[in-house]
Amino acid sequence: MFHQPNKAMYQTIIFDIQDAICRITLNQPAVFNALSKEMLMELRQAFEVVAADDAIRVVVLTGSGDKAFSSGQNLKSGLNPQMDSLGDFLRTYYNPLILAMRKLPKPIICELNGVAVGAGCSLALACDTIIASENASMAQLFVGIGLIMDAGASFFLPRIIGTQKAFELCSTGKSVNAQECLRLGLVNALVAPDSLRNHVQQVAEMYANAPTKAIGMMKKLLNESSSSTLEECLEREAVHQEMAGQTEDFIEGLAAFMCKKKPSFKGR
Q1: How does pLDDT run across 86-141, given as a tens digit for each residue?
Q2: What is the pLDDT of residues 32-61, one digit of tens each?
Q3: Annotated domain spans of the chain
Q4: Which of 4, 51, 135, 208 has the fewest CB atoms within 10 Å, i.e. is most exposed?
């Protein structure tokens, strides 16, 4: 089991562990939690800590303040588009973070507390479920500065809302309010701003008491399903069901079912 990192080691995020729930907060409210090189590196490090600590069973990712989850890439944080390779920047800072999130065998809940634009929107979409404030909104603003969507948006958006709608949002930079996000399936639920944190905490506690190994395998199979044939999906299900059947949580769940009681899952 990992000890909680020294808070002093993080300058741009807040990393907090309570019981089995890890809460990661983008903590640069003065710039609407814009994503700097330092923040991206700290986020990647934080998810590596989460992956290595079996005691952590669910992650909540949110932004500081009540206006923004993240305003996207901080263009004033040392990135010079005229001098730096944007492709190398993505390969160095964004791509490893997005892959770490999608490969994490634990659920990630996005507490979407405000606007999420550009790469900030992509970061939210990389989570497993999004619970949004009624004041939240999402937008892919890259086209406004002559760039394309990145940080996984070209993967996530068409799988969630279809290719044509994804093209519309990316090519126009249209902002989508919370109600429209819910209608399109970009978020899972809307909550009043003053109730958001409590609602997310309840969902996090549900996952903290769930069979974590099985949840992680579900996430992996769903990640792979869109590029697989039916035969490949069926075989992967068989392989991973065999693995799930060897966990302590399966033994507990089966015994609880037979005794008609609530199971006490340990994430093992």
Answers
A1: 889 899 999 999 999 999 999 999 999 999 999 999 999 999 999 999 999 999 99
A2: 999 999 999 999 999 999 999 999 999 999
A3: 7-208, 212-259
A4: 4
What is the CB neighbour count within 10 angstroms for residue 64?
20
Architecture in CATH for domain 7-208? Alpha-Beta Complex (3.90)
Structure tokens at 104: 């994490």
Q: Which residues contact 87 (CB under 8 A, 6 or more apart)?
A: none
Burial call 92-123: b when 16+ CB within 10 Å, e when fewer: ebbebbbebbbebebbbbbbbbbbbbbbbbbb
How many DSSP H helices and E strands does the chain contain?
11, 10
Q: Nearest 5°: phi and psi at 267?
A: 75, 20
Fold of 212-259: Lyase 2-enoyl-coa Hydratase; Chain  A, domain 2 (1.10.12)
pTM: 0.91
| Cα 201 → chain centroid | 15
